Amino acid sequence: MIMTNEWVDIMDQSDILCTMILSSEQFYQYLDAHRAVYTDTSLVSEVNSFTRLKEQYEEVQRFGKYHPDYSKVMKDIRVTKRKLDMVDAVANLKVAENELQDLLDEVSLLIGKSVSEGVKVPVSNPFFASAGSSCGSGCGTGGSCSCSA
After folding, report:
1. What whole-number distance in Å separates Cα of residue 8 and Cα of residue 119?
2. 39-103-16 Cα angle (round to 5)
3. What is the pLDDT along the chain (149 residues), one digit of tens a residue?
4. Buried b vs exposed e over 121-145: b needs ≥16 C-beta within 10 Å?
5. In the structure, how many helices (H) and strands (E) does the chain have?
């Protein structure tokens, strides 16, 4: 690829955008929440335990209710997840992750729509997914929408 002035400008602008995101309030809240969870050794131990349970859960899912440990694993994963969700630091981390993801989704949409209105941008929040669509549900509905795509 030949580097032109336009490409250099795009790279410079992307560096500026990256710096802006890394200095955003959402990013700092995420960092603080992440540190709060992963500097607590007992909480890290619980997260690791939950990760092992998730691996067991995936194994059980392959066979469904016919797996010998199905009931035990299903109960254990629900109890452990509920216990983790009730910890304030974990709840704060989830909120911070969602806020940072919303910021990234919004930036992605702005960049995509600045290129072309027809650009499809994958987003995690359904609000952002329908924000640019004239029919509200996207045009991938198999012809059932009434928008003029």
Report:
1. 23
2. 95
3. 677 898 899 999 999 999 999 999 999 999 999 999 999 999 999 999 999 999 999 999 988 888 898 999 999 999 999 999 999 999 999 999 999 999 999 999 999 888 888 888 888 777 666 555 444 444 554 445 545 44
4. bebeeeebbeebeeeeeeeeeeeeb
5. 6, 0
Structure tokens at 122: 């994958």
Write out the two tokens for 115.
């290129």
Rounded Cα gap, residues 75 and 80, in angstroms: 9
Helices 5-22 and 88-115 cross at an angle (nearest 10°) of 160
The structure tokens listed for 34 are 């992440």
pTM: 0.74
Q: Kindly state the tokens that stand for 56.
A: 């067991």
Q: Which two tokens stand for residue 96?
A: 């911070």
CB 84 within 8 A of CB 47: yes
